[in-house]
Amino acid sequence: MSCGNPSVEVEAIMSRRPKYDKSKICIKCKVNNGAIVVRHAVYCKECFPALLSSKVKRILEPQINPKPELSRKKSLKASGNLMVGFSGGLGSTTLLDLISRIYLSNRMEIKEEGIAKPRGGKGHPRNEPVWKKVTVCYVEIAAGFSGMTDRTETIQQLVQEKFEALDFIPLRLENAFDPTWWDRTFFPTSEPVQRLRSYISALPTHTAIDSTIHTLIRILLLYTARSTRSSHLLLGTSLTSLSINLISSISQGGGFSVREEAQEEWRSDSMETVRLIRPLQEITMKECSMWAWWNNLRVLGKQRHPGVKQGIGALTKDFIVGLERDYPSTVSTIARTCAKLAPRVGASGSCILCERPLQPGVQEWESRISIRATAPSSPSHSSDSFSLLQSLTPYLCYSCHTTLMSRSSKGVSGNITNTSLPLPVWASARLHIPPSDAAISVQLDVKEADDEIWLTRKVDPNEMKAAIGEFLLV
Question: Distance (Å, rounded) from C-alpha 426 to C-alpha 178?
C-alpha cells in the first residue's frame, strides 16, 4: 500500500473493509440472500434461528446436569427447577423466548400425515422435561426513587400473555431490607422502603448506586431461586452487556471475582447450589434486536433509575456500543480475554453484601497505601462505643468497600458524615445482628489493635505533603 498523497494518488487511500467477507449469500444454506451480518458473516432469516439456538445450547446444556458434562452430550435432567430473571429489557425478553422455544415447547414432536407424534416413542427419555417447573421473576426498583412508576402489573401481564404456562413471581427491591421477606413472604411493609431509601441516599456516587442496585437484584433472585428449589437461574445478559459489565466491574475493583460476571455457582447456608448462567453471552445486542423484530416480541425496556447516565457503567456502555458498531469482533475479544483470567490465590470466604469471593489481604494492602492518623484520646472511644462503630471492612470484598467508601466531587450525597447505613437482611444475618438493628456507620473505618484505635479519614493535600515532606527531593 502506497503512503503517498491521497489527493494526488488514488491508490494511496486505504479501501474500507466490506461489511461481509465474500458474498451476500447466506454462509449456512448457501441459497438464500442474507438478511443479517454477524461479525462479517451473512445469514438468512431462515438460518438465523438455528444460529441462536446453537449458541444458547453451547453455553447452557453442559451445565444442566448436576455434574457438568463437557466431553460428551448425555440426556439432560436438572436436579431442580428453573428460574429466569426478567427485567423487561431486550436481553431478558430474547432469553425467555428462546428458552421457551428450545426447552419448554413440544419440540420433540414430528408430524406424520398431519398427526403429531413424539420422537422415539411416548416413553423415550428425550421427551421428559429438563426442568419440572419454570418460574419467571421480576424485581421492581421504583420504591427506591421518587417519581418512578411501578411496572409490576405491566410486566406480569406481558409474561402471562406470551408465556401463560410459566409461573410469575414479583419481587421488590425493598425486600432486601424486609425481615418478612427473609421468612419467604413477599409483602413488604413501609419500613423496608424507608430503609432502602436510606441505604441508597447514603451511597456516595451514582456509580455506587448503580452497582448496589445490580447487587441487590442479583441476591434477591438467588435467594428466591433457592426458595423455589431451582437449580438454575438464567439471566438475559447479551455479549455486549457482558463486555460492559466486565469492564465496569474491573474499573470498580471487582477484578478478583471477574469470572463470576459470566457464570457462578452460588451456595447458601443449606449448601444448596444454584448455578447462575447467562446463556446469551455469545449473542450480541444486534442479534437480540433482530430476533425480537422478526418474532414480534414486545420489549418494554429495562427500567432506568435517576442518575444512571452519570455513572461508570453508562460511560462504559457508550464506549462498548460504539466499539461494537465499528469493530464487532473486538467486543467478543473482551469476554474471551476476561474468561482466561483467574486469581492467583484462593478466596478467604465470601463478601457479606454481594456474596462473591472475598480476596484475602485487602486490609493489609490498603493499610500500606493509606496515610493514617491516630484518633484523639477521648472517653468516647471505649469498648462500648467501639462496638457501635463496627467495621465492615473485614467482611467486604474490595469492590463493595469501594462502593461504600468512595469519594467524588460529583457525588449524590456530598458528605456522608454521621450517616447510619442500614444493612440488607442477608448481611445482618451473617453478622448475627437483628434486622431491625442492622445499621452501621459508614463515616469511619475503625480498627483496634495493640490497645490503639486507628481510623481512616480523608487527608487534606497540604497535610499529606507535610507528612511526606522530609522524603521529597527539593
Answer: 10
